[in-house]
Amino acid sequence: MTQKWDIVIIGGGLAGYVAANYLTKTNSSILLVEKGKNVGGRARTNKIHQQYLNLGPHALNKKGKARSILEELGINLNGKSPKLGGILIENNIEYAAPFAPFELFTTSLLNGKERMEWVAVLFKVMSIDPEKLAEQTFQQWVKQAAHSKKVESLLYILGRLATYCHAPEKVSAKVMVSSMKNALGGVLYLDGGWQTIIDQLHNKAILSSVQVQSHTVVKQIDSARQDEFKLVLSNNEEILAKYVICTTGPHELNEMLVEKYQDSFFAQITAIRGSTLDVALTELPNPKRLFAMAVNDPLYYSVHSTYARLSDDTKSAILHVFKYHHPDDTHDGTSVKNELEQFLEKLQPGWQQYVITKRFIPNISVNQRLPQIGDEQKLQRSKTEIPGLYIAGDWASSDSILADGAVSSGKQAAEELILIEKRKNGADYERRLPAF
Ligand SMILES: Cc1cc2nc3c(=O)[nH]c(=O)nc-3n(C[C@H](O)[C@H](O)[C@H](O)COP(=O)(O)OP(=O)(O)OC[C@H]3O[C@@H](n4cnc5c(N)ncnc54)[C@H](O)[C@@H]3O)c2cc1C
Prior knowledge:
Elements: E1 3-10, H1 14-23, E2 30-33, E3 45-48, E4 51-54, E5 60-61, H2 65-72, E6 79-80, E7 87-90, E8 93-96, H3 101-106, H4 112-127, H5 138-145, H6 149-163, H7 173-184, E9 187-190, H8 195-207, E10 211-213, E11 218-222, E12 229-233, E13 238-246, H9 250-256, H10 264-268, E14 272-281, E15 291-294, E16 299-303, E17 317-324, H11 333-347, E18 355-367, H12 375-378, E19 389-391, H13 402-425, H14 427-431
Parallel strand pairs: 1-2, 1-13, 2-10, 7-15, 13-19
Antiparallel strand pairs: 3-4, 5-9, 6-9, 7-8, 11-12, 12-13, 14-17, 14-18, 15-16, 16-17
Helix pairs in contact: 1-8, 1-13, 2-13, 5-7, 6-7
């Protein structure tokens, strides 16, 4: 029998679940379909040998849109903020990272002149209006903002840390600088991992009668009929829907659409990518080393379990080592894995003896869009050329990326859909709307 729904949401990650939760009070019938066996998308956490591993390092901006929207939906975000300290490694020498006040004035990475320049640049980042940078690449902005090579490389490091982007010559300065501002406001590492966000969103959605169907792949979105979509699944079953919110990546969306509706902008989008080594150790050989980045190589290391409960055994340490990829580079998985393991060896000598579990994931898509100049015009609205079809996901927000982009675009798609329905059905629909 063909299922018929008011709203079908494709994808059970952050964007899909946030959209579902905003739509619940409309009394519409809502189906969320997810191709994976488990829900959560890239926000899922795997429990392996009693250790909770996020898919790579995950830090939630304290001042970002995701946190405030999730809290608005009643989601508890328990965890702590990592200290801003740590080390930077340049030519095998370790320096205190000048991201916190004490290290800023004491690190030997900077001479007196560079220190003053770095302080001034940090103030500039905090006070600048990112809207004014819409026409510049991040590299162009950095060249204007910094005089010394040291401060230039510190800006690139901070940019990578805040956004995972390692393509300053391509990426929009506006998104980079606004994300850096957010990151300087601090982040949270979450107890139990990001799955706790998904689980809460899922439970709330289910309690409000959203149907969730995992292991279900949408193959085609057929919009030929008026006021109704036909979704064809990979097992050739069909689902009918009045509205569709699609939270897959832009290329997957294009593949689901008939050729005349495929969008050339979506086709051009490249992702922000990287490789991650996720590790649980019985103990840290060097308990003082909690955070490090390389100055000249795009490498990251952080012990997340110091601040978040990520294990059923309180003594173990969960850490992530990460390599940021440039979109034009090709990467050999084996050599990236060796590089990450060697970086960890420098920081935690002999770590292999303490391994409870480790996992290497090469070339993973961190954000489905590398934000480039002019993208925002194409992404002002969630609605597409096809009436009734909306997009959401970390690539679909005009001004933010990562979880902030995924969560805010999920909310925006739901609100736009509600508004359209309100215009069509007037008071009747309005009566059913929640007072958010
Ligand atoms: C290594 C790594 C580190 C990260 N670190 C951070 C961080 O520190 N801070 C931060 O804010 N963000 C971080 N992120 C990004 C964050 O995890 C994502 O931006 C967010 O989870 C994306 O949510 P989404 O709903 O847009 O997409 P997804 O989570 O990808 O959800 C989309 C869902 O759609 C499903 N789907 C796809 N095609 C179909 C189909 N045809 N039919 C049915 N279902 C389909 C997919 O299976 C998936 O579950 C990180 C990501 C990674 C990978």
